[in-house]
Amino acid sequence: MTPRFSVVIPARNDAVALGRTLDYLMGLVGIGEAEVIVAASGDPEGTRRAVRGRARLLWPAGSTRAALMNAGAARARGDVLFFLHADSFPPVDAFALIERALSDPRVGGGAFEHLFAEPGWSLRAITWINRIRYRLTRNYYGDQGMFVRAPVFRRLGGYRDLRLLEDLDFSQRLKRVGRPALIRVPLLTSGRRFIARGPWRTFFFIVWLLFLHTLRLGTERYAERWRGPADRSPGSPWRRIAG
User: What is the CA radius of gyration of the chain?
Assistant: First the structure.
């Protein structure tokens, strides 16, 4: 039977976080009728141990998030693609909430409200700043759990082969083919990158990237600094530059 939903999780050297997310996903209402696809890069042993038969595990050639998500989407059979970070936790009724959003035929896709999983006033303040930004612009991000009708995703050509801000680029193109929906129920995502690198330092680095993107000046040269080296897990502290 063709599943209604395909959950696609990109994971690069992120077995520990992936294992926690898959543990959590097994408790979602309707997960038994959905398929879960993990498109992975790095740490084969740890990743296989984390998956433990709970998802279809792919090993695409690329290691960027765009390449991994496109590879997962290419193998997906569902009518709706739900892209989820390896350290994110959707609401337990996420599938029903997505169904409700897609009941409007004008909606091609959308995302959930963002909320960091960890406490702390800095992370809460950044969450509220981000909410103002994406509510005004309707530009959604990967850590909000983006979803899209599979035919719309293929019509748009999937994610562009970008090393950075592939989610923002896709969200902006999604607005051209339909009405994006914001589900105002929080999807929890880890703030580990902000915690490891400093909340406000990380936030203003993102602001800088968005400024460059808006001016079409290009951000690819900052990809390794944001994502981190391919052999390290996401959220690793920035390496100090020797003086």
Answer: 17
